[in-house]
Design goal:
With 250 residues, this protein is an alpha/beta fold. Helix content is 38%, strand content 24%. The protein has nine helices and ten strands. The chain has helices spanning 40-47, 70-77, 95-106, 111-124, 140-152, 170-187, 198-204, 222-226, 231-239, and strands spanning 2-11, 14-24, 29-33, 55-60, 63-64, 80-83, 158-162, 190-194, 207-212, 215-220. The strands form two sheets. The protein has a six-stranded mixed beta sheet with strand order 6-7-8-3-9-10, with helices on both faces. β4 (55-60) and β5 form a beta hairpin. α4 packs across α5. The longest helix has 18 residues, at 170-187. The radius of gyration is 18 Å and the shape is globular. The protein starts with a strand and ends in an 11-residue tail after the last helix.
Amino acid sequence: MIKIVDLYKSFGDQQVLRGVNLEIPKGQITFIMGRSGTGKSVLLKHIIGLLEPDSGQILIDGQDITSMSERELARIRKRFGMLFQEGALFDSMTVGENVAFPLREHTRLSEKEIWARVEAKLAQVGLLKDIDKMPSELSGGMKKRAALARALALEPEVVLFDEPTTGLDPIMQMSIAKLIKETKESHHLTCVVISHDIPVAFAIADKIAFLHEGIILEEGTPEEIRLSQKPFVREFLRALKCPVLEGGES
């Protein structure tokens, strides 16, 4: 569904992406992992057309979005939902109003239809009873779930997650991971997840890709990543005390 071909991006003298090649399969969960500051979020912004590459292609169902007009890009973006790292909820709006916001901005649904969908999406993430709360009244995990409901409001085909489990305790991390997997299955979504969270990735990913020094250094299923002999991949897993290394390394 999404194919990235020889993608390059620099900011001034800093070259961030140095020829990224990656295919993101339709209907699967793909994790993009790597050290902080290696360009994972930059890559995510290219996928949704928020940044323009210096060179290379981003193909969505065979269409190169890097050569599209802003109007054409807007049409493509409607197929995407985005869950930002901090949730990015509007503090001045209730949970329900946050979820309703994209529906009011991008659809011609009636208020009755909007609130029916808002309630349905909040029910899916277990927050229907919190529809009238303000974001300040929510825990970190609840904010992530509210943001996911908003990302799903326009019923996208692809959802992009930027560090969805950062700042959460291990139990809540796995709860969010389970929610991502259940949402993918119930909505037949394609999910792209930026994360450092190895246990979550091994629990729900169909594919894992490691971004290192501006290129995709390694990619494969969790099992293939577990058996990887690339020094950086093994160092990354070991540094996070990942229990899945071959031979039981810690």
